[in-house]
Amino acid sequence: MAPALTLRSALWACLACLFFFVSLPARAAGEDAGAPAPAVPDIVPPVAIDAGSVPYPAGATGDAVVVVEITTDTTGQVKQSKIVEGEGRFAEAVLAEAPRWTFAPARRADVPMAARIRMRVEFRAPKVVPATEADAGAPDAAPRKATGVITGTVEEPEDVRVHGQRKEIGQTTLAAGEVRQMPGAFGDAFRALEALPGVTPILSGAPYFFVRGAPPGNTGYFIDGVRVPILYHFALGPSVIHPGLIDHVDFFPGGYPARFGRFTGGILSGETKAPAREFHGEANIRLFDAGVLGEAPFADGRGSVLVGGRISYSALLLSLVAPNTRVSYWDYQGRISYRVSDRDTLSIFAFGSYDEVLNRGSEAGAQFYPLFRTEFHRIDLRWDHRTSRGNLRTAITLGVDNSLAGISGNTSSEVIAETLGIRNEYEERLSSTAKLRLGADAILYHYSVNAESNALFQSFTARDDVMFGVRGDVVWRVHPRIEIVPGVRLDMFTSRPAPQTPGGTINLVAGKGGVGIPAFDPRIASKITLSKKAAFISTFGMAHQPPSSAIPIPGLDLGTLNEGLQSSVQASQGLELALPLDFSLTTTAFVQNYLNLTDQFATCITVSGNQADDSCVSKRVRGRGYGLEVLLRRDLTKRITGWISYTLSRSTRETTGPVISSPGPVSLNLPASSLGDVLAEFDRTHVFNLVAAADLGAGWRAGARFYLYSGKPYTATQINGIPLPPYNQDRLPAFWRIDFRLEKKWTLGERGSISFVFEGLNVTFNREAIGAECHTTPGQIFDVCKPSYFGPVAIPSIGVEGFY
Q: Which domains does the chain show, CATH number per domain?
């Protein structure tokens, strides 16, 4: 008998866990630390064994010194930590790492005892993405043994130097503090993605991107390791996560490490901020939405509660120009964490989003009905355990994805995907030059479909999909100047038909027509430090992905696994340079081949009589993306800064299209072999970003961005509306826009501030050519085509932000 599980009931059951965490009894953080012993001559102070490894905090700039007072117990473990000197992100980073430090315990008359000491942590800002020669290729910020002699319970601080945190090879990191200064990103770390090389938009302002030639649906989105279906609200909305929760965003256009998989394009991974040790919050109100986020510690810092979210009132503004249409969205985030011991932390993280477009007829008394609605929810329960030489995380994730399309007030189609996942991640430092990283996970998707009234939804089937796999890699410094990261993923993809009943049961054993496909994905990356200011980067890997939709929408995943997996082969070579004035330059040449791709944007011409169908909804294509990426960058939080990104690329699709025979007054007989490689629908030869920003003093800061890209290709040679090979040989006009940001900030007390922000996307109100209009002219064989324009898409924002 097949096992059955109702995921929706399990989801609500886990919400009850949230209240359980709130009711945890508060326990003093140092209740068993013991009082510090009085200083007597026979005291032997604690001696640091593994202490002082503190990553340079993301979003911070410059040098800093933090003095921390820590209390050790009779085993040498840190029981309490308190900042004596220092503030901001640097102090938070030290407090986050101090519990990991270990000491030989203090002794009195050779008896272990609790003690209190002070340590000094000195931060040095990284000057360049490549590490310094002394740190070249280190698998992580290596522990630094504390030196010096402590002669009592309180002694002069010890010096610990920090040279910055290791980043993955091929990774670009955007710190939250930096991207909040990006003009046109509206303070959103994820919307700043379009300013990076290798990223091509489908439309100005729309947060859907081709990454190195892969469609938007082939880019994976993750929040703290949790896969999410979308990262942006519908159409031109912001991301679905409050920006105050995000610490940094990691972007991999290709060649990503083994912990990411099941996507043939790029990876965008957001990491949330660590639980805070003191109360803080922020709020903002803008023309189209308002948001708030607050966090408070409890149990003397052992626990933390965070709540945040945003709600849009854009429907009020839209009703002025489109009274029969309403657009709205909201999102929420909640997190509770509790450190149950010095090595163990339990947490629950819940987040979700909702988007809706309502419409009504023009007749009097017509009611609004949902033209389109989409939402998703996730609950992630985690246990983090710190071992003597590494870390272990075990997590269970529950989720619901839902999309609905309506035709009238009484007719709609709906897809619901209920998910259950479990993952284990472990890393251990094998030696000072090697670190092992392992992982295993499984995720179940239960799809329910009601598609009677919508032809698009009929492409999706009710089914049960299971993906599970294992992965591992080693960060190995084989030489002070050479680091390699070999890795591999082994995944299994299965799919089985399920009853078309929303909220129904899950069949993992019973049923006919099931299919299972394994995948083997090797990866390797290397970094060779040529000098203190130069490093050579190389990545190579394979990736597989189930069939996907062109644009990521919750629940709308194609169920055609029986036609095989999508796959890609990814390779890149790059050079990283440190330049004067704290600039860094990265140049990368890449090539990515795509096989069996589900790209609904691709051109697949089918002709029947005088009717042409150029869609690839159910067809598979091959493709390739190759080119050169350049990123010249200076931290946007600097007083005067600049940023240039440029992508020179070519994206192609190889289709095995049909024979076109006599499509009109002219007799044509074109074999499929005449198609060959054609330019992809959103191939843009040039994509260019220029960002400049400056601190004007007295709390004023201004910035602007110039954004330019080539027009997309199209086929101008047509007869009676039927495009003729060779396809996509003509190109629409290029598009450019200017974004602007102006901020005035007032400081309130020691920690508070309030800011007035004016920001605009496309302040030049430029229109974009999105296609071609072709008309048949009497007496002429070929159609006459000219560009069709959309827009202008311009987003103004006037808002007030407050921080504490």
A: 35-162 (3.30.2420.10), 172-465+475-510+519-803 (2.40.170.20)
